[in-house]
Amino acid sequence: MRTGSEPTTARSALRARLWLSVWGFVWAIAGTAVFALVGRTGWAVACGVLWLIVTVDLAMILRHLCQGPHYQPGPDIPPYPPPDHRV
Predict the structure, then answer these.
(1) Which of 1, 21, 26, 34 could tie 58 with a disulfide, CB 3.0–4.6 Å?
(2) Do the beta carbons of residue 72 and residue 11 sit within 8 Å?
(3) Contacts of 21 (CB under 8 A, 6+ apart)
(4) What does the pLDDT average to over 66-78?
């Protein structure tokens, strides 16, 4: 059921994002190291940039997890003030 407040009450699966970021972090580090060792500078730089992006994403995810749960109104609370029925 749509309430019209999805953008303000949307929730993200932070634990899933955390593990996907850790997975990307490990692969970006490995890719950077391997490509640097075999002399593929362009690919090493690309993996290094990806490593930087994943690191920033991982930091943001950890920050959001440390903030804890935020208030989420229940289904009985309307997302906006009820309409005024004065005629």
Answers:
(1) 21
(2) yes
(3) 54, 57, 58, 61
(4) 66
Q: What is the mean pLDDT of residues 33-53?
A: 97
- Is the pTM higher than 0.85? The answer reads no
Q: Which two tokens stand for residue 75?
A: 């289904």
The rounded distance, in Å, linking the Cα atoms of 16 and 64 is 13
**HSE (CB half, 13 Å, CA atoms) of 54?**
20
The whole-chain average pLDDT of the chain stands at 82
Q: Which residue has the tokens 């229940």?
A: 74
Q: What is the pLDDT of residue 56?
A: 96
Least Cα distance to 9 among 83, 78, 82 occurs for 78
Using H for helix, E for strand and C for coil, what is the string for 46-63? HHHHHHHHHHHHHHHHHH
